[in-house]
Amino acid sequence: MSRAIVMAAQGPFLHAWGLLEAYVDVCPDEIWVEKNGGWPVWQQLAHAIMVLDFFVLGENEQLLPVPCDMDALMLRTQDVPALGKTALRDYAATVKARADNWIAGLEDADLARTNVVLSAKLGRETSYAATLVMLASHTDYHIGSCDAALRNHGLPGVFS
């Protein structure tokens, strides 16, 4: 069982996750509810977390219980009460545990294989390697958008 490539590829996801956690810690409440990039900051973070859960779902698994309206998490509506940081952190911890378990189950040989469950949901062939990359890239995308909100207010962002 070889996992050297999986462990190396996990690095960007762990980095993105650290940025997400850092962002929640430093984001002032007034920015938390502010729209940036077309969506409230809290909503983009909650969306990024929910999508991680979606990416790693196995066959016959359901999304973990979500802390707010699914339309809000899917960025279909904005007119919902803001999710608090404590609720987001609790949800994030549960999703992170599922993602960690998914990654722990991967071997290097799996990376070239098709992730059949995610491929069916996305409607296009997606390998396990691509899934692992998407864990980081989708999270980074939303952290970057939210980071701009901090910088727009003269605060340092979490990206360095």
Question: What does this entry look like structurally?
Answer:
The protein has 160 residues and is mostly helical. The protein is built from seven helices and two strands. The chain has helices spanning 4-26, 29-32, 41-55, 70-73, 85-104, 116-122, 128-152; strands at 35-36, 39-40. The protein has a two-stranded antiparallel ribbon with strand order 1-2. A hairpin with a 2-residue loop joins β1 and β2 (39-40). The longest helix has 25 residues, at 128-152. The model has no long low-confidence stretch (mean pLDDT 95).
Helix content class: 55-70%
Alpha plus pi helix count? 7
Largest pleated sheet: 2 strands, antiparallel
Order of helices and strands: HHEEHHHHH
Secondary-structure class = mainly alpha
Tell me the strand order in the biggest sheet. Answer: 1-2
Q: Per DSSP, what share of the residues sits in E-state strands of 2 or more residues?
A: under 5%
Gyration radius, to the nearest Å? 16 Å
Rough outline: globular
Distance between the termini: 36 Å
Number of strands: 2
Q: Which regions are unreliable across 5 or more consecutive residues at pLDDT < 50? A: none
Could you list some keywords that capture this structure?
160 residues, mainly alpha, two-stranded antiparallel sheet, 7 helices, 2 strands, 2% strand, globular
Quick overview:
Helices cover 61% and strands 2% of the residues.
Which helices and strands occur, and which strands form pairs?
Blueprint lengths: L3 H23 L2 H4 L2 E2 L2 E2 H15 L14 H4 L11 H20 L11 H7 L5 H25 L8
Antiparallel strand pairs: 1-2
Helix pairs in contact: 1-5, 1-7, 3-5, 3-7
